[in-house]
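Let's do one together. I've listed all components of the complex below, 284 residues spread over four lines.
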Amino acid sequence: MTHPRPFSDVLARLKTVGLRPTRQRLALAKLLFDGEDRHVTAEVLHAEAQGAKVRVSLATVYNTLHQFTSAGLLREVVVDPGRSYFDTNSSDHHHFFFENRGTLQDIPEETVSLSGVPEPPAGTSISRVDVVVRVRDESESS
Amino acid sequence: MTHPRPFSDVLARLKTVGLRPTRQRLALAKLLFDGEDRHVTAEVLHAEAQGAKVRVSLATVYNTLHQFTSAGLLREVVVDPGRSYFDTNSSDHHHFFFENRGTLQDIPEETVSLSGVPEPPAGTSISRVDVVVRVRDESESS
DNA sequence: GTGTTTGCAAAGTGTTTGCAATTTA
DNA sequence: TAAATTGCAAACACTTTGCAAACAC
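Okay, and this is what the predicted structure of the assembly comes out as:
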């Protein structure tokens, strides 16, 4: 299965997670969840909102991305020190990171997988396992 | 094998990779490569140098970490947006990241592994595969 | 000597914060 | 109207840069 995206009922989503459906959040949620899965940075999403004639401040974009992440609607992906990426597919999966373009792409789950998750050190529990396959254009020097 | 660390001949190392053995680089290399494998941030290394009465500016620490990384003596590990970590073990291996403390630990290579590295998208080649197992103190709220 | 490296301070980047004004319920 | 949310601008944390002085070969 390619990953179901059954309802883009953005309003319902916000209610479900207990966030007030403000104009800004609705607009951002629409941009994020209305189509295919996406990987965005705050700046990109902000620019996109502007482009769509939605007035939102960058600060609100940041706040919203974090609220959505806490609510489980987004997943943060760490691939670049100094830039945060958010993935609208919050389920467990791995990523290609295109170093040249600075973009992310989901890895189809059939393709890889860990053959064994290691025992976490005593007193700790695993909060998440991230797998990032960094790729670059074939021509590039290593 | 636990990972051989045969020579801490810091001077020879620098020569090998074509970096002039300046006082600063020698001192930093010593701090980095003289004992066990380590995971450091620029700030930590800088503080350590200060503690060891080595006069080095933070800018030089940054420069040096990057030069060592380009030279293959270090490997950068991305686990935190807004902070760069460098690993003195530049061989291929994976990490635990302790979210509470913000520290890294190598995962013994026997323990995990990818069961299959995915085919990189056309026109690209894999530059590296990063696996980060994020752990947190058991008591912590999720 | 010549080219490299250093340190400083300034500038840069991405992100967070304080708070008054606005909006939601 | 009470509580939550927004936007702005200032503050932040970390990193990079420009350039003159110091250093390595």
